[in-house]
Design brief:
The protein has 301 residues and is an alpha/beta fold. It has one domain: Roll (2,3-Dihydroxybiphenyl 1,2-Dioxygenase, domain 1). It is 17% helix and 36% strand. It contains five helices and 18 strands. The strands form three sheets. Strands 14-15-16-13-8-12-10-9-18 form a nine-stranded mixed sheet, covered by helices on one side. The N and C termini lie far apart (39 Å). The structure holds fe (ii) ion. The site of fe (ii) ion has 5 residues, from strand 8 and strand 13.
């Protein structure tokens, strides 16, 4: 197989106040660790995010995991295509073997030789079906913790140009799209239906990062907790058509979103997956409340 990224390793944001991010993501169920004026976000699957302090909220970079054996193949492919390799930004520099560059929209991207974070098979959703004479409702409402980072969705002024860039240079496959408005990409090594997605906007921006919970009950309990902490805006509960996942979005303090999902489609390595161009009326969801107008707002300037 040609060199291809195996995972979305983590996302990195810049925000004006790391303490605000700490509170939000800790409430969301992530393990947060302040490091000077930055912050790391973790799940049981490892690092999921980094937050740096800066002037305004924006995407800092996305990091994708690659096999160390593919490192030179990626470097050659990027250089052959005229993609300029960059020094790591000082605040994100490490001893790790990594390639830094900008994608077709100018977003900063890192390819990191790293252990695989994508699951090797479809991750199960816990469903408790009571037998006659038993009770199905969960006992207690302990606050659920996301298992892992699933994907990120970026705004793009040219969704199909981004799809072509990530296909050509990162080896991602197009899972499904809806016209030129949204597109969803997966890893050929086997991954969720999407580890990266793009949504049409007049300019680039970070729309959401999405985290897996183990069940619908867990999503309900986690969403109630976020509401009780004042995070009342969002969208859900519902079920997406593209990717099939159940979803609940919570609006973050900067106007973008963090998503809880469970039961997302899985595309195994070697699968003869046929992408679909989904009509606009199915692009968002199968069922659920109508999305609020601010769901489509790109707050990054
Ligand atoms: Fe999502």
């Amino acid at each position: 197989m040609e060199a291809a990224v195996h995972s979305l390793d983590h996302f990195a944001l810049t925000v004006p106040d790391a303490n605000v991010a700490d509170q939000f993501y800790a409430n969301f169920g992530l393990k947060t660790t302040p490091r000077g004026n930055s912050l790391t976000l973790e799940t049981p699957n490892g690092l999921a995010g980094t937050v740096f302090e800066g002037e305004r909220k924006r995407l800092h970079h996305l990091t994708f995991g690659i096999d160390a054996a593919d490192f030179e193949a990626f470097r050659k492919r990027l250089e052959a295509g005229g993609v300029v390799l960059l020094d790591p930004p000082a605040e994100a520099a490490s001893a790790a073997e990594a390639l830094w560059f900008r994608d077709a929209d100018g977003n900063l991207i890192e390819l990191l030789a790293a252990t695989r974070r994508s699951p090797r098979e479809k991750s199960n959703m816990n469903v408790r079906v009571a037998a006659p004479g038993e009770r199905a409702a969960p006992e207690g409402t302990e606050r659920p913790k996301p298992r892992r980072l699933g994907h990120a969705l970026l705004f793009s002024p040219d969704v199909l140009r981004q799809v072509e860039f990530y296909r050509r240079y990162l080896g991602l496959g197009l899972a499904d799209r809806s016209g030129e408005v949204v597109a969803f990409m997966y890893s050929k090594h086997g991954s969720d239906h999407h580890i990266l997605a793009f949504g049409k906007s007049e300019r680039p921006g970070f729309h959401h990062a999405s985290f897996e919970l183990e069940s619908i009950d867990a999503i309900g309990v986690a969403a109630m907790h976020m509401k009780s902490q004042g995070h009342t805006e969002g969208w859900g509960f519902g079920r997406h058509y593209i990717g099939s996942n159940y979803f609940q979005y919570v609006r973050d303090p900067w106007g973008s979103f963090a998503e809880y999902f469970c039961d997302i489609d899985y595309i195994p390595s070697g699968c003869a997956w046929q992408e679909r161009n989904v009509p606009a009326e199915h692009a968002l969801f199968v069922w659920g409340p109508s999305p609020p107008p601010y769901f489509f707002e790109n707050v990054e300037t």
